[in-house]
Every structure is written in structure tokens, then in C-alpha cells.
Amino acid sequence: MRDSRETLLTKAFVTGFPVKHSRSPLIHGHWLKQFGITGSYEAVEVAQADFPAFIAHLKDGSSGFAGGNVTIPHKETAFALADEPDELASELGAANTLYLRDGRLKATNTDGHGFLNNLDDRAPGWDTAKNTAVILGAGGASRAIIQALRDRGFGAVHVLNRTEARGQELADRFGPRVHAGPMNALAERLAGADLFVNTTSLGMDDSDAFDIDFTDMRSGALVTDIVYVPLITPILGQAKAQGMRVADGLGMLLHQAVPGFEKWFGKRPEVTPELRALIISDMEKH
Ligand code: ATR
Known about the structure:
alpha/beta, Rossmann fold, 2 domains, 6-stranded mixed beta sheet, 6-stranded parallel beta sheet, 40% helix, binds 2'-monophosphoadenosine-5'-diphosphate
């Protein structure tokens, strides 16, 4: 039997509101071209009120999409409306990847996969010692990273957030290895830590006064930021100046796209230096 994917145009989307700044069409477009697949990946802007109808058309097949990516503000609703969210999406209460199988809408969340694969790729050996990770911020992105680090086997994941109650909610959600604390516990938590992750916009605004001393972290520890515009954020710049090993966040965006492409188009793509350069050159244009 022939795979229908070989003969039909397979369509996928990224939806959000707004969505026009998404770089996902560039990433998937690159892979489609590379594999010579007859397919498309397009940005579809959908307002919150219209999102349930968008999902209904996806489920009944009338939209013609095989699935797609979901970004802010639809990740929680996408999870709620899916027929079969997997364990990762269910624990997060949010989905970023949807795909149809036998008429059922499946959902997963690939942000944690993107985060881990970026570090595996850019900082080999980063998880050789995994006693303690310190995460700044407790928003949507932070959740997927907490889950991923816990599942990678970190002994303790400390979530420090300006609004401590949000951090505590995440500690309650992700179990006994996840701990919440206030921002002023940062120096204490960083002492001997193996990994620091920034998930906030701290330092991006000139009015934010901040000064982090990373030098008490374990020797060889890694500092990373999920903000990737600019590639070297103020926090990464500070860490570099202190002689720390750093990894930028662009690869999280590239790697989170891999599982979706494979589910819709049937081929597992690779994150190559060429793809990274393509996105960096697009970032320089806008
Ligand atoms: P995302 O989904 O990208 O993680 P978010 O849900 O809006 O975005 O979360 C933003 C995170 O950055 C939050 O942890 C926020 O702290 P609060 O929970 O206290 O709002 C944090 N954040 C944003 N600006 C910050 C700043 N100037 N200083 C410290 N934390 C900041």
C-alpha cells in the first residue's frame, strides 16, 4: 500500500495570536525543501474566540491540515480540546504540537525536548553532573523546562521567581525534587549548582538593575537563557564575562520543531549549522 503522504500535499500550520513574527514557517520550509516533500507549513493567525472552531475544522478534516504547532495564547486550549493529549502535555496542561491519527486529534508538548536537545547539541556533557539546577522565572516556558530537567534526572530543581506564589504552584505540580524560592535566594542557590536557566526578560530592559555572580557555581557549570533575541542576552553576556560556559537559546526553538515535522511529514529532520545560520540571518534582517 502506498503512503498517502507520498502523493498528497500534506499541510501543517502554526497558529497563535499574533503569529506573524513566528520563525516556524522558515524552519519547516527549510526541511520541506531539503527532503523534497510536497507539503506546506503556514502561519495561521487565529483569535482566541475563533480557536475552538479552528480545532473543530482540524478534527473533522475540513481544514485539510495534518496538524500543526500552537503558540501563545492557545497552548492551554489546544491541550483541553485535543482528543488524546500525551503524558507530557497532560502534566503541563499545555500543548504546542497537534497531529491527527485515525481521526483523533493527538497533542504533545515538545518545548522540553527542544530545551534538552539544544543543550545536548551545544554543550555536550552538560548533564554529567546533575545535582542542582536553578531556574529563574515561573511562566509557561519555565514549566516545560522544570519537567524536562526533572525527567533528565536532576536531583533538585530550584525555581526562583519575582512572584513566589507562582513558583510554589510549580513546585507543587512537579513533585518533591522541585523547590520554590524568592529571587533574593539566588546567590545561595547558585552556590555549587550545575545549571542556571533564565526564562524571564530580566536584563532586557535597560531599567532593570541586576547583577548575578555565577562564579560560585560548580566548576564547569552551564548558564543558558531561553531568550534568543539577541543571541547573547545580557545574562549570558554577564556569565561569559565571568568565564562561565554558556549556551544560547536559539536551538530550543529549532529542536522543539523536530517531533512535529516528523509526525506530519513522516521524516525526522535534523538541526544543522545551516538551519541555525538561516534563522540567524533572518533575525538580523528584522
Ligand atoms: P513565558 O511563557 O515566556 O515564560 P510568562 O508566562 O509571561 O512568559 O512569564 C514571564 C516570567 O518572567 C515570569 O516568571 C515573570 O515573573 P512574575 O511571575 O513575577 O511575573 C518573569 N519576569 C518578567 N519580567 C521580569 C523582571 N523584570 N524581573 C523578574 N522577573 C520577571
